[in-house]
Amino acid sequence: MTTSPTSAAEQPGDRRIRVDGPDGPATVNVAAIKQRIAAGIRPVVDGDKIDPAEITKVTAGLVRDAEVLLPVAEARSKDRCGQITVGLDSLRRRLAYHRPDPRLYPLNAALCAADLARGCRTLLNLVTEPVDPHRVVLTTW
C-alpha cells in the first residue's frame, strides 16, 4: 500500500496523491477534499439562510470522497483493529443512510454534511499519513 504525489496537470494549490486501494490505484485531490470538508464543517449561524443547492453539492462531493477513501483506509488499517475498524464500519453504514432533503430540512441536511465532513477528514488522515502500528489514532467518527 503506497501513497505518492502525482504531477498530472497540477494547478497552483492542487495536491494530488496516488493511493493504492484494494481495487487498484486511485488519484485523490487532497486540496479539493479539504475544501469540501471545510464547506461541510462550516458552522451554521442562527438566522442565516442555508442554501439547499450548496448543501446538496457539498454532501454529494463528500459522499464521493468517502466512497473513494473508505476502501483505502480499510485496507491500510486492517491490521490495526479496534476503534478504527469500528469507525470505518460505522461510516460505511452511514453512507447508505437516506439523507434529509435540504429543501425541506436545511438544518438537518447541514448537520448531515458536517457529519460526513468529519468522517472524510478522518479518512483523509488515515490515507495520507504514514502507517505506524504503535501510534494511537484519535478519531472523530
Describe the structure.
With 141 residues, this protein is mainly alpha-helical. The protein has 4 helices and 3 strands. The protein has helices spanning 30-41, 52-76, 83-96, 106-128; strands at 3-5, 16-21, 24-29. Strands 1-2-3 form a 3-stranded antiparallel β-sheet. β2 (16-21) and β3 (24-29) form a beta hairpin.
Spell out the key features of this protein.
141 residues, elongated, single chain, disordered N terminus, mainly alpha
Shape verdict = elongated
The termini sit apart by 24 Å
What is the average per-residue confidence, as pLDDT, rounded to a whole number? Answer: 80
Strand order of the largest sheet: 1-2-3
Proportion in β-strands:
5-15%
- N to C succession of SSEs: EEEHHHH
- The total count of strands amounts to 3
Please give the count of helices.
Answer: 4
Task: Report the uncertain regions.
Answer: 1-10
> Measured on Cα atoms, how large is the radius of gyration?
16 Å
Structural class determined from secondary elements: mainly alpha
Described by strand count, sense and barrel closure, the largest sheet is: 3 strands, antiparallel
Query: What is the percent of helical residues?
Result: 40-55%
